[in-house]
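Help needed: design a sequence for this.
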């Protein structure tokens, strides 16, 4: 899973990237090329399962983040800047709320809603460009030869155009499955779920939980396919260099409930409708990520296509039942291990043992 970090220049994108991936990066000056980092998804339940199994290997789920250089107004349509963003599953827009005379804002003042509108507009214009060109192409083809697939595509694209012309991002529209399939190929930017990351000043650390209301930005979170997460970018980036104990102490001294990393990852999972399940044994205890509503056979496919193809059944136990029982055998005796078939809908926190042939 990949999230693209976007935002105007000098808003804290690279700072956020550092928080997420713990990468040591130069934060001064814009980078020409995008860079990709991997965030480990901290998972206390996995740690507890590891205490039970003492596995040779402990593997956390990961989320990839792509940091691109600042999107200037009127420059976002530049295809080379946007190219890395077309491949991501979600966008994280870093919105600047911190004021610092030493770090001038591209538009001269701090105005988060203005910045959100401007950047969304850039993304919409990029999509509109693409839609308009495609509509011309399809219309031309339809003139030569009428066919239903073309008619459907044209109607769909026209609907998208009308929405964007009314400044509605595509993520707010509802599509039928066959339309979604068709749209996948275009990789429209405004169709991606959007996480607005509010980058607060250090002085707001104690009030991070109430930042959205205080800055009257509730409207950002109330739309389909969006979420808002406040961070204290500079403060939280400093935590990256500390060991876990020191970091945890500082986090609680600031009054944060969870670290910026956890806050962001949880919001991303929720926004994308992702859940975690686990596999556990002596060789490896591991966390996996899938879409809510995915079947057991799909979950098997996450692990290996052979397990998906040779799927016989899944033995499923809730992670806390397994922990309380002390072993899979004990959980079986307590009748807490269920035998499930291919169509079983995997639940958050399931520990699954896949039985498969071959
Ligand atoms: N005061 C203050 N400064 C911050 C905060 N977050 C980032 N900065 C500073 O703002 C400057 C820009 O931060 P970056 O993370 O490099 O911003 P960016 O969006 O990646 O910038 P570009 O890639 O150049 O567009 C740096 O000097 C940071 O130290 C913050 O929360 N408070
Ligand atoms: Mg940067």
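Sure. Designed sequence:
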């Amino acid at each position: 899973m990949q999230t693209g970090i976007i935002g105007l220049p000098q808003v804290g994108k690279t700072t956020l990237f550092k928080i997420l991936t713990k990468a040591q990066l130069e934060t001064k000056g814009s980078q020409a090329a995008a860079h990709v980092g991997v965030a480990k998804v901290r998972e206390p339940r996995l740690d507890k399962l590891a205490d039970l199994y003492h596995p040779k290997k402990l593997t956390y789920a990961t989320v990839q983040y792509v940091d691109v250089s600042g999107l200037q107004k009127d420059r976002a349509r530049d295809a080379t800047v946007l190219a890395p963003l077309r491949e991501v599953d979600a966008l994280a827009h870093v919105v600047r709320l911190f004021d610092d005379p030493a770090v001038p804002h591209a538009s001269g003042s701090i105005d988060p809603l203005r910045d959100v509108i401007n950047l969304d507009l850039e993304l919409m214009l990029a999509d509109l460009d693409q839609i308009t060109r495609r509509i011309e192409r399809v219309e031309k083809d339809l003139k030569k030869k009428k066919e239903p697939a073309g008619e459907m595509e044209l109607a769909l694209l026209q609907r998208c155009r009308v929405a964007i012309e009314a400044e509605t991002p595509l993520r707010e529209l509802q599509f039928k499955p066959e339309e979604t399939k068709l749209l996948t190929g275009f990789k429209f930017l405004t169709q991606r779920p959007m996480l607005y990351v509010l980058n607060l000043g250090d002085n707001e650390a104690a009030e991070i939980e109430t930042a959205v209301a205080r800055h009257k930005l509730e409207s950002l979170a109330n739309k389909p396919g969006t979420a808002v997460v406040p961070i204290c970018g500079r403060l939280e980036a400093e935590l990256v260099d500390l060991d876990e104990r020191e970091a945890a102490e500082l986090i609680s001294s600031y009054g944060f409930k969870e670290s910026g990393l956890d806050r962001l990852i949880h919001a991303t999972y929720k926004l994308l409708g992702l859940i975690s399940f686990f596999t556990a044994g002596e060789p490896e205890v591991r966390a996996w990520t899938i879409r809510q509503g995915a079947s057991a056979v799909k979950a098997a496919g996450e692990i290996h296509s052979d397990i998906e193809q040779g799927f016989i059944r899944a033995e499923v136990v809730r992670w806390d039942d397994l922990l309380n029982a002390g072993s899979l055998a004990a959980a079986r005796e307590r009748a807490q291990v269920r035998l499930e078939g291919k169509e079983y809908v995997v639940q958050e926190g399931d520990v699954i043992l896949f039985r498969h042939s071959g």
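Residues 7, 9-15, 27, 30, 69-70, 98, 100, 103, 199, 201-202, 232-234 surround guanosine-5'-triphosphate (ligand 1) (CB under 6 Å).
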